[in-house]
Amino acid sequence: MAFRKIALIGGGVMLMAALGLLPAFLHEKNGGIIALDRPVPSLNTQFSDKEYLMVFVGYVGCRDVCSPRLESLSAIYAGLDGELKQKSGVLFIDFAPEGDPEQAERFARYFNGAFAGISADKAQRQTLRRELDIYFSTDAARPNEYNHSDYLYLLKKEQGGWHLRGVLTGTVWRPNDLDYLFSL
């Protein structure tokens, strides 16, 4: 009887994950790609001419997560074929409450001149948290730093708006991970 309950619960969790009903931070910790199809109506960017938008959320000055992730993303982005690169944009969103739009832009462009950065205000943070399942909180031990998810969100422009197509999780991002994301 206990085995059936575990199987039923496990199957239910897997189904909820496949349907995108679990927050991203509850998915596998060792890495993976979560395929989704969900509108993200609040995200209006300067990338109106792009078909794809890769979004990374963090904060300016984050050395432990953002810097290595954005360096990795820059290397992968540089390796995209010309046509796909032309169709794609990369957006860094600074989620820090004290964020500065100019600093967010400079921080993103430090890693790659083609990257853009914006600073989300309180209303944008609340909306994007819901739309993308973003985890972001103050670090109790280090008051000037934040804990946050380190995921790459791939959005695709469909019917005039952005749709979340997939989330890249895990500790290592590889070029073939992006290839798979773009195929979703």
Write the layout of secondary structure elements.
Elements: H1 2-18, E1 32-39, E2 52-58, H2 66-78, H3 82-87, E3 88-94, H4 101-111, E4 116-119, H5 122-132, E5 136-138, E6 146-148, E7 152-158, E8 161-169, H6 175-183
Any overview of this molecule?
This protein has 184 residues and is an alpha/beta fold. The protein has one domain: 3-Layer(aba) Sandwich (Glutaredoxin), CATH 3.40.30. 36% of the residues lie in helices and 26% in strands. The strands form 2 sheets. Strands 1-8-7-2-3-4 form a 6-stranded mixed β-sheet. It has a two-stranded antiparallel sheet with strand order 5-6. The longest helix has 17 residues, at 2-18. It is globular, with a radius of gyration of 17 Å. The termini are far apart.
Listing every helix as H and every strand as E from the N terminus to the C terminus, the arrangement reads HEEHHEHEHEEEEH
CATH architecture grouping = 3-Layer(aba) Sandwich
The figure for the number of domains is 1
Number of strands: 8
Rg result: 17 Å
CATH superfamily: Glutaredoxin
CATH topology name: Glutaredoxin
Helix segment count?
6
In one word, what is the shape? globular
Structural class: alpha/beta
Biggest beta-sheet profile: 6 strands, mixed
- Which consecutive residue ranges, at least 5 long each, have pLDDT under 50? 1-30
The CATH class name reads Alpha Beta
What distance lies between the first and last C-alpha atoms, to the nearest angstrom?
A: 38 Å
**What is the typical, i.e. mean, pLDDT?**
81
Query: Can you give the helix content as a percent range?
Result: 25-40%
Strand content: 25-35%
Main sheet: which strands, in order across?
Answer: 1-8-7-2-3-4
